[in-house]
Amino acid sequence: MLHSSNLLAPFFSAWSSNLKLFKRVADKKLSILTLCALYNVPFGNLPPLLQGGYSATVTMFIELFEKLPAAYARTPTKTKK
């Protein structure tokens, strides 16, 4: 859908450039799961834009995983009463 409406490039550009703003665990997990779903698509079935930028998605994936422990550390722990 994004590809057919010419929104794929702006979407991925905005997503990758704003990745550093994702501080919460949920934001990072959602991005990781989205990339995992993307990696399940056979390479030949990806739009040409994603085929050409595949290495950039791997970089995004690594960055998300590297910063995930810090996001967990910022998450307040619930105290039991």
Number of helices: 4
Order of helices and strands: HHHH
Class by helix and strand content? mainly alpha
| Mean residue pLDDT | 87
Could you tell me the number of beta strands?
0
Percent strand equals under 5%
Any overview of this molecule?
By secondary structure, the protein is mostly helical. 63% of the residues lie in helices and 0% in strands. The model has no long low-confidence stretch (mean pLDDT 87).
Give a short synopsis of this structure.
By secondary structure, the chain is mainly alpha-helical.
How would you describe this structure in keywords?
81 residues; mainly alpha; 4 helices; elongated
Layout of strands and helices, then pairs:
Elements: H1 8-17, H2 25-39, H3 48-52, H4 54-74
Helix pairs in contact: 2-4
